[in-house]
Design goal:
heterodimer; A: 481 residues; alpha/beta; Rossmann fold; 2 domains; 51% helix; globular; B: alpha/beta; four-stranded mixed beta sheet; LUD domain-containing protein (chain B); FTHF_cligase-like_sf (chain B); LUD_dom (chain B); NagB/RpiA_transferase-like (chain B)
Chain lengths: 481, 255
């Protein structure tokens, strides 16, 4: 399994803020991803209604998940495939290894798959003498650099061009040392050439799945590069890794979700390759795998059903929430310390590795609500993060300073008169102190907070409540006139 | 067994046992009737406009389209395209009767082999089963006459598509697929593989900047055979202007 550094989120975040290369990469991402999504959504007037439909399809499926999983598995077997039901990550790793060994596999090509990262498939295969080769351009360089992905769609977004060039020079040693990368396309062409021979030589191809379809027993992958398709077409054996919540009832259901996925993820109307795989090579087919295995993984999902966190199982892994998150936008994905970063990770990670280890993540949010507003299946991410904060507090996992601070605040909050007086004094003092400054870059007693951020100077006019009351009174006077 | 453990855990979460027979029948009915959800209005157009939308969307995604009057015009169109792109006049093509029945003797210099693609093939000629106007997408189901490797290994893919096979939305393609299969009611109509292809291969993994030709074809050229009487539309070159992202310019994340 990927090494977990989630408990060190604060230290990770501090390091990320001081990393100039990372900040350059993050600034670049924000600019492009927001605009592209917004343009794609604006070009489809039905997008909002599709979000409701997407949410309803997933809710219907989850309410009948046992039925649809059995229906799906029956169709896979009908098409000549095999389904391996795995409750735990251990079982899933063992199932993958066994299939590879039965085929005498030496190298395995892989399409990008987050569940593979979650299970640590690569480490497991390597430990048993089988070489996994990541073929997604981003995953390829991360495998060489021995880094985890920092984003679920663009795993290597944290790298800059110079990182690509130096890594390729270091690893592709048979090529001239002084070769020049004039364009980014030269970097890509080199990776394409290197990987082509790996595709052709692989014994097994492993992909994830964006959807599984109960009607037909199909697994669906969505890519732009075509690496997933080469991975699942050329080797004799195709292994699909998929968690149980990926299933949907019909082609029509998958289609409605596909209309949401690419627009939310990359701002494309549709990804370049959306591919439906169903079982084994048919009589007369000239290509395609002779063996088709689906490793169907629970690994903690079924525990979420019937709880507050069931809604998280609607997630289609588009990454819109992290692309729009102000916290992810400055810390990047590695700070979150495990496989899934950003708001979706802050909800999912505690369910999968425990709130004791991941308690910092649901606290790494300003609750601005942007994630929920862009989620294609309307997952109430802030609400779910709040649930985690409550559980953390109930289980006495939050640090003493936080608990004392909350107790102090609660004492005031239960005494509204006193609370209003104290906030009025506080706001007044800050407003006075910061007159003409615009923002505080440091404050006594709050240096921990201001070390990483600036505090805007409150505008004159009092607290929110005071101004709200004044406005309401003014409105009433106007109405009487 | 893990299957029972997983299903049991799901049912415990849902606070029920296995679904009663009548509810199972209802869900099986939902699968058998596969109701459509909302279909965006953008593809609900008169025929000629639907085809124009298809072309516009292909070009928006950096594919190219050439309209040809009939299949007899394909050898010349292929040869001219390869010459214009400075590509060798040698191709691997789908063993589909629409392509193999063409009289290729008009272009004797064009070397052709009907088979799956291999690593050394530079150009493929594929038979497109359908096109989807909504997003300019080709539907390429695998079978003995339509190998999947033709869509992946060569650097250049040329696809032959009949205008009469262009539909508006994905759902129409699914229904055509079901109609063509004997056991559509039980979901057994799916070929091993269906690729929905929208433009040439690309990646934005390097600095979120779009580059074409990542692992699959760098060029996707569609020969649209005008086999149905449709009024000729003006050239949809304005689609180029609509395309907001050019190769080499900042793009959204790829995969």
């Amino acid at each position: 399994m990927v090494h977990i550094t989630s408990p060190a989120f604060k230290a990770n975040a501090a390091r990320a803020l001081a990393d100039a290369g990372l900040q350059k990469a993050l600034d670049r991402s924000k600019g492009t991803s927001h605009g592209k999504r917004a343009a794609a959504v604006a070009a489809l007037p039905e997008f909002e209604r599709l979000r409701d439909i997407g949410r309803d399809i997933k809710n219907h499926t989850l309410a009948n998940l046992d039925f649809y999983l059995e229906a799906y598995a029956a169709q896979v077997e009908r098409a000549g495939g095999t389904v391996h039901w795995c409750s735990t990550a251990d079982e899933a790793r063992a199932a993958v290894l066994k299939i590879c060994r039965d085929k005498g596999a030496r190298t395995v090509t892989k399409g990008k798959s987050m569940i593979s990262e979650e299970l640590g498939i690569n480490e497991h295969l390597e430990a048993h003498g089988i070489e996994p080769v990541e073929t997604d351009l981003g995953e390829y360089i991360l495998q060489i650099r021995k880094e985890p992905p920092s984003h679920i769609i663009g795993p290597a977004f944290h790298l800059n061009r110079e990182d690509w060039e130096s890594t390729f020079r270091e690893i592709h040693t048979e090529l001239p040392k002084d070769r020049v990368f004039h364009e980014r396309s030269d970097i890509m062409a080199e990776a394409r050439t290197k990987l082509r021979s790996r595709f052709l030589a692989a014994d097994v191809g492993i992909t994830g799945a964006n959807f599984l379809i109960a009607e037909t027993g199909s697994s669906v992958i969505v890519t732009n590069e075509g690496n997933g398709d080469l991975t699942q077409t050329l080797p004799k054996t195709h292994i699909v890794l998929a968690s149980i919540e990926k299933v949907v009832p019909t082609l029509e259901d998958a289609t409605s979700l596909l209309r949401l996925l690419a627009r939310s993820a990359t701002g494309q109307d549709f990804s370049v390759y959306t591919t439906f795989s169903t079982g084994i090579r048919r009589e007369g087919d000239l290509d395609g795998p002779e063996d088709y295995h689906v490793v169907l993984i629970d690994n903690g999902r079924s525990n979420m059903i019937g709880t507050d966190f069931q809604e998280m199982l609607r997630c289609i892994r588009c990454a819109a929430c992290m692309n729009h998150c102000p916290v992810y936008g400055v810390t990047g994905g590695h700070a979150y310390g495990w496989v899934y970063p950003g708001p979706m990770g802050s909800v999912l990670t505690p369910t999968l590795i425990g709130i004791d280890k991941a308690g910092n993540l649901p606290n790494a949010s300003t609750f601005c609500g942007k994630c929920e507003s862009v989620c294609p299946v309307k997952i109430p991410l802030p609400k779910l993060m709040r649930h985690w904060r409550e559980r953390e507090f109930e289980r006495h996992l939050s640090p003493q300073s936080v608990r004392s601070g909350l107790a102090f605040w609660a004492w005031f909050a239960k005494r509204p008169g006193l609370y209003r007086m104290a906030t009025k004094l506080g706001i007044g003092a800050l407003s006075l102190l910061g007159r003409g400054k615009g923002k505080f870059t440091s404050l006594p007693l709050a240096s921990g907070w201001t070390a990483g951020r600036d505090l805007p100077v409150p505008e004159p006019g009092g607290t929110f409540m005071a101004r709200y009351k004044a406005q309401k009174a003014a409105d009433q006077r106007a109405a009487r006139r | 067994m893990s299957k029972d453990a997983i299903l049991g855990a799901i049912r415990r979460g849902l606070k029920r046992g296995p679904l009663p027979a009548d509810q199972q029948a209802m869900l099986a009915g939902r699968i058998a009737t596969h109701p459509r959800h909302l279909i965006p209005a953008r593809s609900r157009l008169p025929r000629a406009e639907q085809i124009a939308l298809f072309i516009r969307n292909v070009e928006k995604e950096f594919g190219t389209v050439e309209r040809v009057p009939d299949h007899a015009a394909i050898p010349a169109a292929v040869a001219d395209y390869l010459a214009a792109q400075n590509l060798p006049s040698r191709l691997v093509m789908a063993p589909h009767p629409d392509l193999t029945d063409i009289d290729w003797s008009t272009r004797p210099m064009l070397e052709r082999e009907a088979r799956r693609a291999e690593a050394a093939d530079a150009v493929s000629l594929q038979h497109a089963w359908a096109g989807i106007a909504e997003t300019g997408t080709l539907v390429l189901p695998s079978d003995a006459q339509r190998p999947t490797t033709l869509n992946l290994l060569p650097d250049t893919e040329i696809a032959v598509l009949r205008a009469s096979d262009v539909v508006g939305a994905y759902e129409e393609a699914w229904d055509r697929l079901r109609a063509g299969a004997p056991d559509a009611l039980t979901g057994g109509f799916m070929p091993r593989n269906i690729m929905l292809v929208t433009g040439p291969s690309r990646s934005a993994d390097i600095e979120q900047t779009l580059e074409l030709g990542a692992h699959g074809p760098r060029r996707l050229h569609i020969l649209l055979v005008e086999d149905e009487p449709a009024p000729r539309m003006e050239s949809p070159s304005e689609a180029r202007a609509e395309a907001t992202t050019q190769p080499g310019a900042p793009a959204a994340p790829g995969d």
